[in-house]
Amino acid sequence: MSEFTLPALPDLSPATPVLWRGRVWTGVGDAPLEDGAVLTRAGRIEAVGRAADLPMPADTVQVQTEGTVLPGLIDLHVHARPAYLPWFVAAGVTTVRDACNSLETVAALLNPAGLAPRVLPSGPLLDGPDAFFRNFGPGAVHEPGDGQERTAGALIVRTPAQAERAVAFLADQGVTHIKLYEALATDVYAAATHAAARLGLPVMTDLGMLTTRGRAAQLDARQALALGVRSVEHASGYALAAQRAGFDPQAELPGDLLDELAALTVTAGAALVPTLSVFASLATDTPPDERDLPLAGQGGPVRESLEAQWNAVHAGTRPVRSLARADGRLAAQLAARIARLGGRVGAGTDTPAGAFTLPGGSLHAELERLVQAGLTPVQALRAATVTAADILGRADLGRVQPGAVADLLIVGADPTADIRATRDIRLVVQAGQPVNPVALRTALEA
After folding, report:
1. 98 and 62 within one domain
2. How many beta carbons lie within 10 A of that of residue 216, not counting itself?
3. Residue limits of the Amidohydrolase-related domain (predicted)?
4. Which of 23, 154, 336, 409 could form a disulfide with 133 if both were Cys (CB 3.0 to 4.6 A apart)?
5. Residue 36: which CATH number?
């Protein structure tokens, strides 16, 4: 039996059993298991328990982590590009749900040239004729059947029949979920949700916020929840629901209304993905301090491109600072209430669409913001692990349990006590294989 201490790890064959020893937080229980261990082989977790109690094959490699072993993190809301896929891995994010991309881009994301997280794509979102994506140029918006569907960021659907055909088309392209946007007509939106349900595809929805065009949307959160959406992104549609109930969504909303909306979300079985980091960066003229986030100091052309985009977004949204504060307050209040009711809150960053949302790194900031909103550190961790996996419908992700994919994140301290401990990354393990630091550095600099 071989024994190693991080970071001196050998190249491991996928068939080699590896025992990762240390404090273990499974994602399922509340308290971590001290002096625990995780046995992995062939990309899966075979056993979890106290190190002294686990049987080990004779050829097992033991790795003493001197830290906490937890599930690889999941970012539920990203807009990925191939160039920065390694950034997620470096930050311990082993799975991402892509929230909108052309099918051409999705193909590149699913066939990366190097290190990359698992990508679960929606492909282009579905929207109405007055689509916001028209602002991105004529190539960003197409209609199903016009021969340009693979290049579109948004597919325009005007009738229920078109919505049904668009959902069927995306299902044939292998998407894992459907995204519905703010300008869809009510009957078209309903047709899309029903078509997705028949095909077993969960629906994520962005109904618009105060900072965008949420009050001009045709559906509010109540209506979307009644139609069976799996997750509501950015706490969108709730401000419109409050306005329709006779309240000013820019003001502090009454607690009983917030309680009602939170309970409605839980009863519907839907999840809230509040993306608090998006509102935090738009609510102030001062960019957030990200110096201690993973890869915060990473330079190069990818970072320069991201910075240029973020600075443009931040400067262009100066007139909506107060609206962003209202959006962020509403999202935080709903997240805390849903968590207290035992509902599902998922962690997503909208990276890099939101200003200064660092690929991979900003998920750690999102976890801290969830705690600041009122979630416990364990609830926040679950928002990026087991709860996130449940939102995805993937019982094999986001947990350290026998049979699950062996995606692990090893950090120095105990994040169940201090959520900022996730930032002290010692090692990332993908499908049982430790990510080679040299290969990771090469990928980041490529």
Report:
1. no
2. 11
3. 68-432
4. 154
5. 2.30.40.10
> Considering 376, 392, 408, which residue would you say is the last residue of a domain?
392
pLDDT of residue 445: 80
Residues 67 and 90 in one domain: no
Query: What is the gyration radius of the CA atoms in the chain, in angstroms?
Result: 21
Q: State how many domains the chain has.
A: 2
Same domain, 377 and 408: no
Q: Enumerate residue ranges in the chain where pLDDT < 50.
A: none
User: What's the pLDDT score for residue 96?
Assistant: 98
Question: What pLDDT is stored for residue 3 in this prediction?
Answer: 64
The pLDDT of residue 8 = 65
State the pLDDT at residue 2: 60
The tokens describing 260, both together, are 């009602």
**Domain end position, chosen among 354, 370, 392:** 392
Q: What is the pLDDT of residue 1?
A: 53
Q: What is the pLDDT of residue 216?
A: 86
pLDDT the model gives residue 215: 86
Provide the CATH number for the domain around residue 218.
3.20.20.140
pLDDT recorded at residue 42: 96
Give Cα separations from 89 to 119, 421, 430, 436 (angstroms).
12, 17, 9, 11
Same domain, 95 and 53: no
